[in-house]
Design goal:
This is Zinc finger BED domain-containing 4. By secondary structure, this protein is mostly helical. It has 14 helices and no strands. The protein starts with a helix and ends with a helix.
Length: 300
């Protein structure tokens, strides 16, 4: 890491940067202290330029990399690749919904498990540490415990995912998830029906009197409708979001559970925008106007 840091520091000096550009034909990526992914991106670029690193270090009068160090770099980036890709996906700001969380977590676990078969010489302990930490941090999600039902509903109501992301060892959970979808859709249907009360000419609600038989019949019909709509949705082979327009209850569930973002990164990015807006010559901005300007800057 010391040799790599020396190379990154050199890339910030004009003359060294010119020599780097001659050899690489591109700009060297340098890590950002506040973004772990930037370290992976920087190391991965060095790994892809492995054949040119000898010439680079020679031109910059820096200590050369040994073969063992380059082998370590290759293993390091190979192990961290699933995590880096997952973080990039979950920090997306355009079309990243909460539904991506569970499929992404199971994809990372599967890819890390597949790396076990690789014969790592230097980083086998790193792979084990990552797997232990990952499973400890996301144990509730990976075991589909009841407290993550919202994440489950967010995923299964997306036409692209549905239940395809479930791993083989959790295939027994399909029945519970199916029942969870039906019950959630039925509850949502009852809420929608209760909110559509008509009024008389005098402005009084017509259904002032509530009869038990009517409530039971309404509940059964709503549950049947939810069950039928859920079944048709899961059997639909289309994956576009526009499909949800044909399934009103599923669409409402999708909107309800996908308003959450899987990462706080998009919100944190607003802080940097706030620094661009709150300049000395604009110090008299009112709070409401300042907030609007920050939000507008963030959605440009």
């Amino acid at each position: 890491m010391g040799k790599w840091s020396a190379l990154w520091n050199a890339s910030g000096r004009p003359k060294s940067a010119e020599k780097l550009s001659e050899v690489l034909n591109c700009r060297l990526i340098t890590p950002c202290p506040t973004r772990w992914n930037s370290l992976y991106d920087s190391l991965n670029q060095l790994n892809t330029q492995r054949g040119k690193l000898g010439d680079i270090m020679l031109k910059l009068n820096l200590p050369s990399f040994r073969d063992a160090e380059l082998d370590y770099l290759e293993e390091y980036t190979k192990i961290l690749k699933p995590l880096a890709i997952a973080i990039d996906r979950l920090q997306g700001q355009s079309c990243c919904y909460y539904d991506e969380l569970l499929p992404t977590l199971f994809a990372v676990e599967s890819k890390l498990e597949a790396l076990r078969s690789s014969n790592f010489r230097y980083c086998s302990h790193l792979l084990q540490a990552i797997m232990d930490g990952f499973r400890s941090r996301f144990s509730s999600f990976l075991q589909l415990k009841p407290e993550v039902n919202e994440a489950i509903l967010a995923s299964v109501t997306h036409p692209y995912f549905k239940m395809h992301w479930l791993p083989q060892q959790l295939s027994g959970e399909k029945k519970r998830i199916h029942e969870l979808m039906i019950q959630s859709a039925a509850d949502l249907g009852l809420v929608m029906e209760s909110g559509s009360s008509s009024t008389t000419a005098d402005g009084e609600v017509e259904d002032f009197f509530v009869f038990t038989e009517d409530v039971e019949v309404s509940g059964k019909s709503t549950h049947s409708k939810a069950e039928l709509e859920t079944l048709h949705f899961l059997e639909d082979q289309r994956k576009e979001l526009e499909v949800l327009d044909q399934y009103p209850l599923i669409r409402q569930l999708f909107v309800r559970f996908n308003t959450i973002i899987p990462s706080s990164a998009p919100v944190e990015h607003l802080f940097s925008f706030a620094g661009l807006i709150n300049r000395p010559h604009r110090r008299h901005l009112k709070p409401n106007l300042f907030e609007k300007l920050v939000v507008l800057k963030g959605i440009e």
